[in-house]
Amino acid sequence: MARDPEAWSAIFDAHYRPVFSFVRYRLRRTEEAEDIASQVFEIAYARADRFDYRGVPIEAWLIGIARNLVRDHIKKIGRRGYEEELMETTAPSLPDASEIVDLRQDLAAAMQALTEDQQTVLSLRFILDKSVADTARLMERSEDAVKNLQRRALAAMQRALADLDYTGNAAR
Amino acid sequence: MSAERIESLLEEFLATGTVPAGATDAEQAELFALQDAALALRASLASVERQAGAAMPAARARFERYIRAAESEARPPAREAIHPPESRRGRSWGGVLAMHRGLTAFGTAALLGSLALVALFVSQALLSDVESASAQVLTPGDYVQVSGVVASATGEGDAQRVTLSSELGDLNVAVSQSTSVVDDQTAQEHGSLHPGDPVLVGGLVGKDRSIVASTLAVTSRRLAPGERVGAKQLHRLEQALDGKVVTLTISSDGKSGQLVLDDGKGNRFLVRISGTAAETLLSNSATALGTRILATLAGEPSGVFSVQIVPESTATPAVGGSPTVGPPSGPFPAGIRPDAGQAPQRPSFVGIRGTIVGREGNVITVETAKGTLQVVLRADTRLLLLESGLARDAVLHGDSPAIGHRVTISGGYDPQTNRVLADVVVLGPRVTR
Fold it and tell me: Do residue A107 and residue B44 have CB atoms under 8 angstroms apart?
Protein backbone atom coordinates (compact mmCIF):
# COMPACT_ATOMS: atom_id res chain seq x y z
CA MET A 1 0.00 0.00 0.00
CA ALA A 2 2.92 2.31 0.78
CA ARG A 3 2.99 3.88 -2.68
CA ASP A 4 -0.13 2.55 -4.31
CA PRO A 5 -2.00 5.58 -5.70
CA GLU A 6 -5.34 3.76 -5.64
CA ALA A 7 -4.93 2.84 -1.99
CA TRP A 8 -4.04 6.43 -1.21
CA SER A 9 -7.03 7.64 -3.15
CA ALA A 10 -9.22 5.45 -0.95
CA ILE A 11 -7.50 6.70 2.19
CA PHE A 12 -8.03 10.27 1.07
CA ASP A 13 -11.72 9.66 0.36
CA ALA A 14 -12.27 7.99 3.71
CA HIS A 15 -10.37 10.43 5.89
CA TYR A 16 -10.25 13.87 4.30
CA ARG A 17 -13.50 15.14 5.79
CA PRO A 18 -12.71 14.01 9.36
CA VAL A 19 -9.19 15.40 9.13
CA PHE A 20 -10.45 18.71 7.76
CA SER A 21 -13.11 18.94 10.48
CA PHE A 22 -10.57 18.05 13.16
CA VAL A 23 -8.25 20.89 12.19
CA ARG A 24 -10.97 23.37 11.26
CA TYR A 25 -12.09 23.95 14.83
CA ARG A 26 -8.66 25.02 15.86
CA LEU A 27 -7.97 27.46 13.10
CA ARG A 28 -9.37 30.82 12.24
CA ARG A 29 -9.70 30.55 8.50
CA THR A 30 -11.08 27.92 6.19
CA GLU A 31 -8.02 28.38 3.98
CA GLU A 32 -5.72 27.45 6.86
CA ALA A 33 -7.70 24.27 7.49
CA GLU A 34 -7.65 23.41 3.79
CA ASP A 35 -3.90 23.83 3.63
CA ILE A 36 -3.16 21.86 6.79
CA ALA A 37 -5.59 19.05 5.93
CA SER A 38 -3.82 18.71 2.59
CA GLN A 39 -0.43 18.71 4.28
CA VAL A 40 -1.58 15.85 6.50
CA PHE A 41 -2.03 13.55 3.51
CA GLU A 42 1.15 14.72 1.83
CA ILE A 43 3.19 14.02 4.95
CA ALA A 44 1.48 10.66 5.45
CA TYR A 45 2.28 9.70 1.87
CA ALA A 46 5.87 10.84 2.20
CA ARG A 47 6.31 8.87 5.43
CA ALA A 48 4.32 5.83 4.39
CA ASP A 49 7.40 3.63 4.38
CA ARG A 50 8.00 4.42 8.04
CA PHE A 51 4.46 3.71 9.19
CA ASP A 52 3.86 0.38 10.89
CA TYR A 53 0.33 -0.66 9.99
CA ARG A 54 0.17 -3.46 12.50
CA GLY A 55 -2.37 -2.60 15.12
CA VAL A 56 -2.36 1.13 14.53
CA PRO A 57 -5.47 2.61 12.94
CA ILE A 58 -4.50 4.81 10.04
CA GLU A 59 -6.94 7.39 11.33
CA ALA A 60 -4.91 7.69 14.53
CA TRP A 61 -1.81 8.24 12.48
CA LEU A 62 -3.45 10.95 10.37
CA ILE A 63 -4.93 12.69 13.41
CA GLY A 64 -1.51 12.59 15.04
CA ILE A 65 0.03 14.30 12.04
CA ALA A 66 -2.80 16.84 12.04
CA ARG A 67 -2.25 17.61 15.72
CA ASN A 68 1.43 18.26 15.14
CA LEU A 69 0.80 20.44 12.12
CA VAL A 70 -1.83 22.50 13.93
CA ARG A 71 0.49 22.89 16.91
CA ASP A 72 3.31 24.12 14.68
CA HIS A 73 0.99 26.41 12.78
CA ILE A 74 -0.39 28.00 15.92
CA LYS A 75 3.11 28.48 17.24
CA LYS A 76 4.03 30.26 14.04
CA ILE A 77 0.95 32.42 14.19
CA GLY A 78 1.52 33.03 17.87
CA ARG A 79 4.66 34.88 16.98
CA ARG A 80 2.48 37.22 14.95
CA GLY A 81 -0.14 37.55 17.67
CA TYR A 82 -2.78 34.91 17.13
CA GLU A 83 -5.12 36.28 19.75
CA GLU A 84 -5.07 39.68 18.13
CA GLU A 85 -5.93 38.10 14.80
CA LEU A 86 -8.73 36.15 16.41
CA MET A 87 -10.25 39.14 18.07
CA GLU A 88 -10.25 41.01 14.79
CA THR A 89 -12.70 38.50 13.40
CA THR A 90 -14.90 37.76 16.36
CA ALA A 91 -17.51 40.35 15.53
CA PRO A 92 -21.04 38.99 15.11
CA SER A 93 -21.67 37.55 11.67
CA LEU A 94 -23.44 39.74 9.16
CA PRO A 95 -26.32 38.15 7.25
CA ASP A 96 -24.41 38.06 3.98
CA ALA A 97 -20.99 37.33 5.40
CA SER A 98 -18.83 34.88 3.53
CA GLU A 99 -18.39 31.26 4.49
CA ILE A 100 -15.26 32.12 6.39
CA VAL A 101 -17.44 33.16 9.31
CA ASP A 102 -19.70 30.11 9.00
CA LEU A 103 -17.82 28.61 11.89
CA ARG A 104 -18.86 30.63 14.88
CA GLN A 105 -15.84 32.67 15.68
CA ASP A 106 -16.70 32.56 19.38
CA LEU A 107 -16.17 28.81 19.21
CA ALA A 108 -12.82 29.24 17.55
CA ALA A 109 -11.83 31.76 20.17
CA ALA A 110 -13.11 29.56 23.00
CA MET A 111 -11.15 26.61 21.65
CA GLN A 112 -7.99 28.64 21.98
CA ALA A 113 -8.58 28.87 25.72
CA LEU A 114 -8.31 25.09 26.03
CA THR A 115 -5.22 22.96 26.36
CA GLU A 116 -4.20 20.95 23.33
CA ASP A 117 -5.45 17.70 24.89
CA GLN A 118 -8.75 19.32 25.76
CA GLN A 119 -9.15 20.53 22.19
CA THR A 120 -8.34 17.07 20.91
CA VAL A 121 -10.81 15.29 23.13
CA LEU A 122 -13.63 17.68 22.21
CA SER A 123 -12.84 17.40 18.51
CA LEU A 124 -12.80 13.62 18.63
CA ARG A 125 -15.90 13.25 20.80
CA PHE A 126 -18.16 15.97 19.44
CA ILE A 127 -16.85 16.80 15.97
CA LEU A 128 -15.79 13.38 14.76
CA ASP A 129 -18.39 11.69 16.97
CA LYS A 130 -16.00 9.09 18.33
CA SER A 131 -16.98 6.92 21.26
CA VAL A 132 -15.09 7.15 24.51
CA ALA A 133 -13.38 3.87 23.65
CA ASP A 134 -12.31 5.07 20.19
CA THR A 135 -11.18 8.41 21.60
CA ALA A 136 -9.13 6.59 24.22
CA ARG A 137 -7.48 4.50 21.52
CA LEU A 138 -6.78 7.50 19.28
CA MET A 139 -5.33 9.51 22.15
CA GLU A 140 -3.54 6.53 23.66
CA ARG A 141 -5.22 7.13 27.01
CA SER A 142 -7.45 5.06 29.26
CA GLU A 143 -11.20 5.48 28.97
CA ASP A 144 -11.34 6.94 32.47
CA ALA A 145 -8.70 9.48 31.50
CA VAL A 146 -10.74 10.45 28.45
CA LYS A 147 -13.89 10.91 30.53
CA ASN A 148 -11.98 13.08 32.94
CA LEU A 149 -10.41 15.12 30.18
CA GLN A 150 -13.77 15.49 28.47
CA ARG A 151 -15.45 16.88 31.57
CA ARG A 152 -12.67 19.36 32.18
CA ALA A 153 -12.65 20.36 28.52
CA LEU A 154 -16.40 20.96 28.40
CA ALA A 155 -16.23 22.97 31.61
CA ALA A 156 -13.39 25.07 30.23
CA MET A 157 -15.26 25.54 26.97
CA GLN A 158 -18.41 26.58 28.76
CA ARG A 159 -16.47 29.13 30.82
CA ALA A 160 -14.73 30.46 27.73
CA LEU A 161 -18.01 30.85 25.88
CA ALA A 162 -19.54 32.64 28.85
CA ASP A 163 -16.53 34.96 29.00
CA LEU A 164 -17.03 35.71 25.32
CA ASP A 165 -20.71 36.50 25.99
CA TYR A 166 -21.69 34.37 22.98
CA THR A 167 -21.18 37.16 20.50
CA GLY A 168 -17.50 36.68 20.17
CA ASN A 169 -16.73 39.82 22.15
CA ALA A 170 -14.82 39.47 25.35
CA ALA A 171 -17.07 40.15 28.33
CA ARG A 172 -16.17 43.22 30.25
CA MET B 1 -20.10 15.21 44.24
CA SER B 2 -17.02 13.31 43.16
CA ALA B 3 -15.32 13.78 39.78
CA GLU B 4 -15.84 10.14 38.93
CA ARG B 5 -19.56 10.37 39.61
CA ILE B 6 -20.14 13.47 37.50
CA GLU B 7 -18.08 11.95 34.67
CA SER B 8 -20.20 8.83 34.79
CA LEU B 9 -23.41 10.86 34.86
CA LEU B 10 -22.17 13.04 31.99
CA GLU B 11 -21.42 10.03 29.84
CA GLU B 12 -24.90 8.66 30.44
CA PHE B 13 -26.47 12.08 29.80
CA LEU B 14 -24.58 12.55 26.52
CA ALA B 15 -25.39 9.04 25.35
CA THR B 16 -29.09 9.03 26.21
CA GLY B 17 -29.99 12.72 26.16
CA THR B 18 -31.92 12.33 29.37
CA VAL B 19 -30.88 13.33 32.85
CA PRO B 20 -29.78 10.22 34.74
CA ALA B 21 -32.10 9.13 37.50
CA GLY B 22 -30.78 10.04 40.90
CA ALA B 23 -28.82 13.09 39.80
CA THR B 24 -29.08 15.85 42.37
CA ASP B 25 -30.08 19.40 41.50
CA ALA B 26 -26.45 20.50 41.67
CA GLU B 27 -25.38 17.62 39.46
CA GLN B 28 -28.14 18.37 36.98
CA ALA B 29 -27.06 22.01 36.80
CA GLU B 30 -23.51 20.97 36.05
CA LEU B 31 -24.64 18.44 33.45
CA PHE B 32 -26.70 21.04 31.60
CA ALA B 33 -23.81 23.49 31.63
CA LEU B 34 -21.47 20.88 30.20
CA GLN B 35 -24.04 19.86 27.64
CA ASP B 36 -24.35 23.49 26.48
CA ALA B 37 -20.69 23.49 25.50
CA ALA B 38 -21.05 20.20 23.65
CA LEU B 39 -24.14 21.43 21.81
CA ALA B 40 -22.35 24.63 20.80
CA LEU B 41 -19.70 22.51 19.12
CA ARG B 42 -22.18 20.21 17.45
CA ALA B 43 -24.31 23.14 16.26
CA SER B 44 -21.61 24.25 13.86
CA LEU B 45 -20.86 20.74 12.62
CA ALA B 46 -23.00 21.07 9.49
CA SER B 47 -21.17 24.22 8.52
CA VAL B 48 -17.79 22.57 8.93
CA GLU B 49 -18.87 19.50 7.00
CA ARG B 50 -20.08 21.76 4.19
CA GLN B 51 -16.69 23.46 4.15
CA ALA B 52 -14.97 20.08 4.10
CA GLY B 53 -17.09 18.95 1.16
CA ALA B 54 -16.41 22.15 -0.73
CA ALA B 55 -12.68 21.89 -0.09
CA MET B 56 -12.38 18.23 -1.01
CA PRO B 57 -12.14 18.38 -4.84
CA ALA B 58 -9.37 20.96 -4.78
CA ALA B 59 -7.62 19.06 -2.00
CA ARG B 60 -7.89 15.83 -3.96
CA ALA B 61 -6.38 17.53 -7.00
CA ARG B 62 -3.55 18.89 -4.88
CA PHE B 63 -2.91 15.48 -3.35
CA GLU B 64 -2.86 13.81 -6.77
CA ARG B 65 -0.43 16.42 -8.04
CA TYR B 66 1.72 15.77 -4.98
CA ILE B 67 1.74 12.04 -5.62
CA ARG B 68 2.60 12.53 -9.27
CA ALA B 69 5.45 14.87 -8.37
CA ALA B 70 6.71 12.46 -5.70
CA GLU B 71 6.59 9.54 -8.10
CA SER B 72 8.38 11.57 -10.74
CA GLU B 73 11.17 12.49 -8.31
CA ALA B 74 11.49 8.94 -7.05
CA ARG B 75 11.69 7.42 -10.53
CA PRO B 76 15.30 6.61 -11.44
CA PRO B 77 16.48 8.09 -14.74
CA ALA B 78 16.10 5.65 -17.60
CA ARG B 79 19.53 4.64 -18.82
CA GLU B 80 18.44 4.17 -22.40
CA ALA B 81 16.86 7.60 -22.44
CA ILE B 82 20.30 9.17 -22.70
CA HIS B 83 20.10 8.32 -26.36
CA PRO B 84 18.03 10.67 -28.49
CA PRO B 85 14.43 9.50 -28.55
CA GLU B 86 12.98 8.22 -31.78
CA SER B 87 10.31 10.82 -31.88
CA ARG B 88 9.15 13.78 -29.93
CA ARG B 89 6.07 11.93 -28.77
CA GLY B 90 8.16 9.06 -27.47
CA ARG B 91 10.06 11.03 -24.85
CA SER B 92 9.51 10.26 -21.21
CA TRP B 93 10.06 12.55 -18.25
CA GLY B 94 13.07 10.57 -17.18
CA GLY B 95 14.41 10.54 -20.71
CA VAL B 96 14.28 14.25 -21.08
CA LEU B 97 15.87 14.75 -17.70
CA ALA B 98 18.64 12.39 -18.65
CA MET B 99 19.11 14.13 -21.95
CA HIS B 100 19.25 17.45 -20.19
CA ARG B 101 21.88 16.14 -17.79
CA GLY B 102 23.89 14.81 -20.69
CA LEU B 103 23.88 18.11 -22.44
CA THR B 104 24.80 19.91 -19.26
CA ALA B 105 27.77 17.60 -18.80
CA PHE B 106 29.14 18.77 -22.10
CA GLY B 107 28.84 22.34 -20.92
CA THR B 108 26.52 23.29 -23.69
CA ALA B 109 26.28 27.00 -23.28
CA ALA B 110 24.04 27.11 -26.30
CA LEU B 111 21.39 25.27 -24.36
CA LEU B 112 21.41 27.90 -21.64
CA GLY B 113 21.38 30.58 -24.29
CA SER B 114 18.38 29.14 -25.98
CA LEU B 115 16.63 28.75 -22.66
CA ALA B 116 17.27 32.40 -21.89
CA LEU B 117 16.12 33.34 -25.35
CA VAL B 118 12.70 31.86 -25.01
CA ALA B 119 12.65 33.03 -21.40
CA LEU B 120 10.46 30.15 -20.36
CA PHE B 121 10.97 28.01 -17.33
CA VAL B 122 9.39 24.68 -17.82
CA SER B 123 8.81 22.06 -15.15
CA GLN B 124 11.05 19.09 -14.81
CA ALA B 125 10.46 17.88 -18.34
CA LEU B 126 8.15 17.65 -21.27
CA LEU B 127 4.81 16.01 -20.87
CA SER B 128 4.97 14.68 -24.35
CA ASP B 129 3.16 11.46 -23.63
CA VAL B 130 -0.52 12.07 -24.22
CA GLU B 131 -1.56 9.87 -21.30
CA SER B 132 0.58 11.99 -19.04
CA ALA B 133 -0.84 15.12 -20.59
CA SER B 134 -4.44 14.17 -19.87
CA ALA B 135 -3.51 13.05 -16.37
CA GLN B 136 -1.78 16.37 -15.75
CA VAL B 137 -4.54 18.54 -17.11
CA LEU B 138 -7.66 16.63 -16.11
CA THR B 139 -8.23 16.60 -12.38
CA PRO B 140 -11.25 14.68 -11.08
CA GLY B 141 -13.97 17.08 -9.99
CA ASP B 142 -12.86 19.92 -12.27
CA TYR B 143 -14.97 21.41 -15.01
CA VAL B 144 -13.26 21.21 -18.40
CA GLN B 145 -13.69 22.66 -21.87
CA VAL B 146 -11.84 20.64 -24.48
CA SER B 147 -12.25 20.19 -28.21
CA GLY B 148 -11.58 17.29 -30.51
CA VAL B 149 -12.96 14.99 -33.13
CA VAL B 150 -15.29 12.06 -32.45
CA ALA B 151 -13.23 8.91 -33.04
CA SER B 152 -16.05 6.54 -32.16
CA ALA B 153 -19.50 6.68 -30.64
CA THR B 154 -21.12 3.65 -29.06
CA GLY B 155 -24.40 3.10 -27.28
CA GLU B 156 -27.80 4.42 -28.06
CA GLY B 157 -29.78 7.50 -27.27
CA ASP B 158 -29.15 8.79 -23.78
CA ALA B 159 -26.34 6.42 -22.85
CA GLN B 160 -23.58 7.03 -25.36
CA ARG B 161 -19.87 6.62 -24.84
CA VAL B 162 -17.85 8.82 -27.13
CA THR B 163 -14.14 8.50 -27.71
CA LEU B 164 -12.84 11.96 -28.40
CA SER B 165 -9.58 12.35 -30.25
CA SER B 166 -8.19 15.48 -28.63
CA GLU B 167 -4.89 17.19 -28.11
CA LEU B 168 -4.79 15.53 -24.71
CA GLY B 169 -5.09 12.10 -26.31
CA ASP B 170 -8.13 9.88 -26.62
CA LEU B 171 -10.66 10.90 -23.99
CA ASN B 172 -13.72 8.96 -22.94
CA VAL B 173 -16.81 11.14 -22.88
CA ALA B 174 -20.08 10.00 -21.34
CA VAL B 175 -23.18 11.47 -22.98
CA SER B 176 -26.34 11.08 -20.93
CA GLN B 177 -29.86 12.40 -20.74
CA SER B 178 -28.60 15.45 -18.88
CA THR B 179 -26.14 16.30 -21.66
CA SER B 180 -27.22 19.12 -23.93
CA VAL B 181 -26.05 18.49 -27.50
CA VAL B 182 -26.22 21.66 -29.59
CA ASP B 183 -25.31 22.61 -33.12
CA ASP B 184 -25.06 26.10 -34.58
CA GLN B 185 -28.82 26.63 -34.42
CA THR B 186 -30.49 24.42 -31.85
CA ALA B 187 -30.33 21.22 -29.83
CA GLN B 188 -29.63 17.85 -31.41
CA GLU B 189 -30.59 14.29 -30.63
CA HIS B 190 -28.03 12.43 -28.55
CA GLY B 191 -27.60 9.81 -31.22
CA SER B 192 -26.50 12.35 -33.79
CA LEU B 193 -22.78 12.03 -33.06
CA HIS B 194 -20.68 10.37 -35.74
CA PRO B 195 -16.99 9.64 -36.21
CA GLY B 196 -15.31 12.67 -37.72
CA ASP B 197 -17.61 15.19 -36.05
CA PRO B 198 -15.64 18.09 -34.59
CA VAL B 199 -17.02 18.67 -31.12
CA LEU B 200 -16.53 20.85 -28.16
CA VAL B 201 -17.12 19.20 -24.80
CA GLY B 202 -17.91 20.91 -21.54
CA GLY B 203 -18.30 18.74 -18.48
CA LEU B 204 -16.97 17.34 -15.26
CA VAL B 205 -13.87 15.20 -15.00
CA GLY B 206 -14.64 11.85 -13.40
CA LYS B 207 -12.38 9.79 -11.16
CA ASP B 208 -11.04 7.83 -14.11
CA ARG B 209 -10.53 11.10 -16.00
CA SER B 210 -13.38 10.40 -18.35
CA ILE B 211 -15.54 13.44 -18.97
CA VAL B 212 -19.19 13.48 -18.01
CA ALA B 213 -20.48 15.88 -20.63
CA SER B 214 -22.93 18.56 -19.59
CA THR B 215 -22.82 20.29 -22.97
CA LEU B 216 -21.55 19.01 -26.28
CA ALA B 217 -21.40 21.36 -29.26
CA VAL B 218 -21.18 19.95 -32.80
CA THR B 219 -21.17 21.18 -36.39
CA SER B 220 -21.81 19.34 -39.61
CA ARG B 221 -18.32 20.02 -40.95
CA ARG B 222 -15.90 17.11 -41.07
CA LEU B 223 -12.35 17.53 -39.81
CA ALA B 224 -9.41 15.20 -39.53
CA PRO B 225 -8.14 14.61 -36.00
CA GLY B 226 -5.57 17.22 -35.06
CA GLU B 227 -2.00 16.45 -34.13
CA ARG B 228 -1.49 15.56 -30.53
CA VAL B 229 1.19 17.64 -28.97
CA GLY B 230 2.32 17.24 -25.39
CA ALA B 231 2.06 20.17 -23.05
CA LYS B 232 4.87 21.57 -20.96
CA GLN B 233 4.11 22.63 -17.44
CA LEU B 234 5.04 26.26 -17.10
CA HIS B 235 6.01 27.52 -13.65
CA ARG B 236 7.98 30.64 -14.39
CA LEU B 237 8.00 33.15 -17.15
CA GLU B 238 10.12 36.23 -17.70
CA GLN B 239 7.91 37.80 -20.30
CA ALA B 240 4.34 37.40 -21.38
CA LEU B 241 3.46 34.25 -23.28
CA ASP B 242 1.27 34.89 -26.31
CA GLY B 243 -0.94 31.95 -27.21
CA LYS B 244 -4.38 30.54 -27.83
CA VAL B 245 -6.35 28.57 -25.28
CA VAL B 246 -6.85 24.95 -26.34
CA THR B 247 -8.06 23.51 -23.03
CA LEU B 248 -9.55 25.09 -19.93
CA THR B 249 -10.27 23.55 -16.54
CA ILE B 250 -11.95 25.16 -13.53
CA SER B 251 -11.82 23.78 -10.01
CA SER B 252 -15.02 22.93 -8.19
CA ASP B 253 -14.90 26.07 -6.06
CA GLY B 254 -14.20 28.27 -9.08
CA LYS B 255 -11.09 29.70 -7.44
CA SER B 256 -8.47 28.13 -9.68
CA GLY B 257 -7.97 26.42 -12.99
CA GLN B 258 -5.56 25.40 -15.68
CA LEU B 259 -5.03 26.31 -19.31
CA VAL B 260 -3.27 24.59 -22.13
CA LEU B 261 -1.92 27.28 -24.45
CA ASP B 262 -0.78 26.92 -28.05
CA ASP B 263 1.95 29.44 -28.82
CA GLY B 264 1.46 29.05 -32.58
CA LYS B 265 4.94 27.53 -32.96
CA GLY B 266 4.02 23.96 -32.28
CA ASN B 267 4.35 24.23 -28.50
CA ARG B 268 1.74 23.66 -25.84
CA PHE B 269 2.12 25.05 -22.36
CA LEU B 270 0.17 24.10 -19.27
CA VAL B 271 -0.32 26.98 -16.87
CA ARG B 272 -2.15 27.35 -13.59
CA ILE B 273 -4.58 30.24 -13.42
CA SER B 274 -6.68 31.94 -10.77
CA GLY B 275 -10.46 32.12 -10.68
CA THR B 276 -10.12 35.74 -11.74
CA ALA B 277 -8.35 34.67 -14.93
CA ALA B 278 -11.09 32.14 -15.68
CA GLU B 279 -13.63 34.90 -15.18
CA THR B 280 -11.76 37.13 -17.60
CA LEU B 281 -11.79 34.41 -20.24
CA LEU B 282 -15.41 33.39 -19.87
CA SER B 283 -16.67 36.95 -19.61
CA ASN B 284 -15.23 37.48 -23.06
CA SER B 285 -16.71 34.44 -24.75
CA ALA B 286 -18.98 31.51 -24.00
CA THR B 287 -16.04 29.29 -24.83
CA ALA B 288 -12.52 30.01 -23.71
CA LEU B 289 -11.08 27.75 -26.39
CA GLY B 290 -9.56 29.67 -29.26
CA THR B 291 -9.21 32.87 -27.28
CA ARG B 292 -5.84 34.52 -27.79
CA ILE B 293 -4.27 35.69 -24.56
CA LEU B 294 -1.12 36.98 -22.96
CA ALA B 295 -0.23 34.93 -19.90
CA THR B 296 1.90 36.61 -17.25
CA LEU B 297 2.88 35.94 -13.68
CA ALA B 298 2.15 39.47 -12.54
CA GLY B 299 -0.22 40.01 -9.66
CA GLU B 300 -0.83 36.38 -8.72
CA PRO B 301 0.68 33.99 -6.16
CA SER B 302 3.79 32.11 -7.19
CA GLY B 303 3.24 29.88 -10.19
CA VAL B 304 -0.27 31.18 -10.90
CA PHE B 305 -0.74 33.07 -14.14
CA SER B 306 -2.98 35.98 -14.94
CA VAL B 307 -4.35 36.43 -18.43
CA GLN B 308 -5.00 39.34 -20.70
CA ILE B 309 -7.15 38.86 -23.78
CA VAL B 310 -5.59 39.92 -27.06
CA PRO B 311 -8.18 41.31 -29.49
CA GLU B 312 -7.96 39.46 -32.78
CA SER B 313 -7.42 41.88 -35.63
CA THR B 314 -7.86 39.14 -38.20
CA ALA B 315 -11.17 37.67 -39.25
CA THR B 316 -10.49 34.47 -37.33
CA PRO B 317 -13.23 34.27 -34.72
CA ALA B 318 -12.74 32.64 -31.35
CA VAL B 319 -14.41 29.29 -30.96
CA GLY B 320 -17.74 29.89 -29.30
CA GLY B 321 -17.98 33.47 -30.44
CA SER B 322 -19.11 36.33 -28.31
CA PRO B 323 -22.08 36.27 -26.03
CA THR B 324 -25.26 37.76 -27.39
CA VAL B 325 -25.05 41.50 -27.90
CA GLY B 326 -26.90 43.97 -30.04
CA PRO B 327 -30.15 45.87 -30.03
CA PRO B 328 -33.34 44.26 -28.71
CA SER B 329 -35.26 42.52 -31.45
CA GLY B 330 -38.22 41.02 -29.63
CA PRO B 331 -38.62 37.75 -27.75
CA PHE B 332 -36.33 34.83 -28.42
CA PRO B 333 -37.93 32.41 -30.87
CA ALA B 334 -38.52 29.01 -29.32
CA GLY B 335 -36.47 26.10 -30.61
CA ILE B 336 -33.50 28.17 -31.76
CA ARG B 337 -30.56 28.80 -29.48
CA PRO B 338 -30.57 32.41 -28.32
CA ASP B 339 -27.16 33.20 -29.79
CA ALA B 340 -27.84 31.60 -33.18
CA GLY B 341 -26.13 33.49 -35.94
CA GLN B 342 -23.54 34.92 -33.56
CA ALA B 343 -21.37 31.85 -33.35
CA PRO B 344 -18.61 31.13 -35.87
CA GLN B 345 -18.59 28.07 -38.08
CA ARG B 346 -17.12 25.90 -35.40
CA PRO B 347 -18.71 24.05 -32.52
CA SER B 348 -19.59 26.52 -29.84
CA PHE B 349 -21.41 26.61 -26.55
CA VAL B 350 -24.48 28.74 -26.14
CA GLY B 351 -23.48 32.10 -24.72
CA ILE B 352 -25.57 34.91 -23.35
CA ARG B 353 -24.79 38.07 -21.47
CA GLY B 354 -27.15 40.30 -19.56
CA THR B 355 -28.50 41.21 -16.15
CA ILE B 356 -30.32 38.92 -13.73
CA VAL B 357 -33.83 40.26 -13.24
CA GLY B 358 -35.52 37.34 -11.52
CA ARG B 359 -35.03 33.97 -9.90
CA GLU B 360 -37.29 31.10 -8.99
CA GLY B 361 -35.56 28.08 -7.50
CA ASN B 362 -32.69 27.16 -9.76
CA VAL B 363 -34.04 29.12 -12.72
CA ILE B 364 -32.86 32.67 -13.20
CA THR B 365 -34.29 35.19 -15.62
CA VAL B 366 -31.73 37.16 -17.58
CA GLU B 367 -32.43 40.34 -19.46
CA THR B 368 -30.16 40.54 -22.48
CA ALA B 369 -29.82 43.12 -25.21
CA LYS B 370 -32.11 40.98 -27.37
CA GLY B 371 -34.77 40.14 -24.85
CA THR B 372 -35.41 38.15 -21.68
CA LEU B 373 -34.80 34.44 -21.30
CA GLN B 374 -34.52 31.84 -18.60
CA VAL B 375 -31.39 30.00 -17.52
CA VAL B 376 -31.30 26.79 -15.51
CA LEU B 377 -28.56 26.51 -12.87
CA ARG B 378 -27.57 22.87 -12.78
CA ALA B 379 -26.30 21.11 -9.69
CA ASP B 380 -22.76 21.18 -11.07
CA THR B 381 -22.85 24.61 -12.70
CA ARG B 382 -19.58 26.41 -12.05
CA LEU B 383 -20.07 29.79 -10.43
CA LEU B 384 -17.37 32.39 -10.94
CA LEU B 385 -18.29 35.32 -8.77
CA LEU B 386 -15.18 37.04 -7.56
CA GLU B 387 -16.30 40.30 -9.16
CA SER B 388 -19.80 40.05 -7.73
CA GLY B 389 -18.85 40.18 -4.08
CA LEU B 390 -21.35 37.41 -3.37
CA ALA B 391 -20.75 34.18 -1.46
CA ARG B 392 -20.97 30.92 -3.39
CA ASP B 393 -23.29 29.08 -1.02
CA ALA B 394 -25.61 32.04 -0.78
CA VAL B 395 -25.99 32.17 -4.56
CA LEU B 396 -26.31 28.40 -4.93
CA HIS B 397 -28.96 28.07 -2.27
CA GLY B 398 -30.84 31.14 -3.39
CA ASP B 399 -30.15 33.20 -0.26
CA SER B 400 -28.57 35.75 -2.58
CA PRO B 401 -30.63 35.61 -5.77
CA ALA B 402 -28.14 38.02 -7.35
CA ILE B 403 -30.89 40.16 -8.85
CA GLY B 404 -29.42 43.14 -10.65
CA HIS B 405 -25.99 41.58 -11.18
CA ARG B 406 -24.39 41.40 -14.58
CA VAL B 407 -23.97 37.85 -15.77
CA THR B 408 -22.27 35.94 -18.56
CA ILE B 409 -23.40 32.38 -19.11
CA SER B 410 -22.18 29.53 -21.24
CA GLY B 411 -23.74 26.13 -21.60
CA GLY B 412 -26.33 24.20 -23.55
CA TYR B 413 -29.88 24.74 -24.67
CA ASP B 414 -33.22 23.00 -24.17
CA PRO B 415 -35.54 23.71 -27.11
CA GLN B 416 -38.54 22.21 -25.30
CA THR B 417 -38.48 24.86 -22.60
CA ASN B 418 -36.51 27.45 -24.59
CA ARG B 419 -34.07 27.70 -21.69
CA VAL B 420 -30.30 27.90 -21.53
CA LEU B 421 -28.69 25.18 -19.39
CA ALA B 422 -25.76 26.79 -17.59
CA ASP B 423 -22.35 25.16 -17.47
CA VAL B 424 -20.50 28.22 -16.25
CA VAL B 425 -21.95 31.40 -14.79
CA VAL B 426 -19.75 34.46 -14.39
CA LEU B 427 -21.42 36.91 -12.04
CA GLY B 428 -20.32 40.50 -12.31
CA PRO B 429 -20.99 43.45 -10.06
CA ARG B 430 -24.47 44.78 -9.45
CA VAL B 431 -25.60 47.14 -12.15
CA THR B 432 -26.54 50.63 -11.07
CA ARG B 433 -29.52 51.89 -12.98
Answer: yes
